[in-house]
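Q: Study each token:
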Amino acid sequence: MRAKRGQVTLFIIIAIFIVAAAVFGTIYFKKIRPASVQVNVVEDYFKDCISVQIKDAAKIAEMQGGWIEPPAREEGSSYMPFSSQLNFLGLDIPYWFYVSGNNLAKEQKPSLAEIEKQMENYLESNMKSCKFDSFTEKGYVVETAGDPTASVSIKSSSIDAQVTWPMTVSFENKSTVITEHAASAKTMFGALYDDAEKIFEAEQRGLFLENYSIDVMRLYAPVDGIEISCAPKIWNQASVKQDLLQALEANIGMIKAKGSYYSVSEENKYFEFDVGKSVSENVHFLYSQNMPAKFEVWPTENGMMRFDPVGTQEGLGMLSAIGFCYVPYHFVYDISFPVLVQISSEDEIFQFPMLIVIDKSQARNSTAIEGEEVTFDVCKFKTQEIEISTYDESAKPLEAEIYYKCFSQACSLGSTKISGGKASLNALVPKCYNGVFIARADNHSDSNQQISTNIPPSSINMFLKPQHTLKIEGISSDKKAIISFSSSDYSASVYWPEQKEIMLAEGDYNVTAQLFKDSEMTLPAQSGEQCIKVPAIGIAGIFGGEKEECFEVNTPEEALTSVLFGGGNTEFYATEDELSGSSRIIFAIPEFSIPANIDDLAGLYGKLETSKIGVELI
């Protein structure tokens, strides 16, 4: 009986414990669980806020070539007119590759680690913008301690962040502390950056954009060739530049980085370029004529590109012996312009600019990257102090930009400023033997002074001649004319009727003019023997005496559509007073009968040697 009573007692105790535990658990969870649920709601809100900040950071970095905090801006110069950032639709985007104003090749592509660090800084600076006011209105108290720190990891289709920021959430007299907050945002930033890196490395390795651009240059601009003509070949530099930049704008946009985002016809396979690894997102190459560009061409004179015919020189030897004249031409170009690369996935666009450089008609040196110097940067070593003063021809102070050219580099020294009755600039210049100071001002001819700065003078004075624009008269619009003014320190040429004005500075000029008219003349086919004397090689390969060698010359029939029929030359001195008081320049150019055959043309060249033209300022 006692044993049974003991068992009943044990059962009763166990039952009481179970009931007590159930009652305690009910009371505990009624009081604690609601608070835990609300803590989760606050934490979820905060994680969402972190995700929004991640997306904002990614968006900024995508639009600025991966940079949230761009590197310091470096301005260009008149010789290399590109800063370290491309302004595109009002947004400054750091170049991944550019050439500085001092002709230094520089690269500023951010690494993935650098981007992650800048995103961490962005999150740490913006976390406090996540407000908890709506929770306070519902009776919650959210308190944070110290400043947040963040760790970011960029993946192909997402960016993960771990934010450390102690946060106490209190609700109904219960408090919970959360220190670590993990959040993630879906974004294709990582994949877009990966494709951008592939394209950039392919360009730096193989210069495919330069090579496409050189093809465009050779198709749309005169580079080299020979044309059968007895008249000079002349191109307007401004027109050549405009045509070329238009062609670059159209053709650059056609280039495709090989991938699966497009289909291309067989005839457009030329524009498809393999970057080494297939890109996964849409890629677009953009150049606009509204972007800055450098365009220089040699030889050129006052905006005209000209080559004279062979066969019209002294004695007309070639013309009379062979029966025709020809114009060989060869132009050399320096062209630099930016290309903006845009890689997109749905509504995300990652973009970065690169500078395309064609140097002396060739692609730039692909090894001159990673911030290496293209040439020795003499401009960094300015140690010699000198005062430069600039004046016009009447010795009045004139503000001007000042450069010092040493070897192939032109160092910008600044501008002279008018103060105290003179325009001057105190500047440091590098040590250089036979360098050249250059003063440049609007509507004035450049002033150049060769000065060695290893032992420089304390000051120099530079005088700039004003240029005056004169309207050309005396030539009818149905005629073509080439008029050239040449002096010891200034020259100018015009090609009428494309150019109807000329700019002249004071000087003593040799003036030449040639008149052409649209007319047909046929150079007949010629065949015969041409003999020339060449050095004779004697015993043991020693040159001695001459011998005659002959060869057959066969030229096809050629039709000329522009024929020379007038011209001449004269000496002309223009003073500053005459130029400043005139608005027109009138030419009287002798005209002769339009040549009907090759003999007439030969006779005409003889007349032009002694023919005098009239020049008058009004």
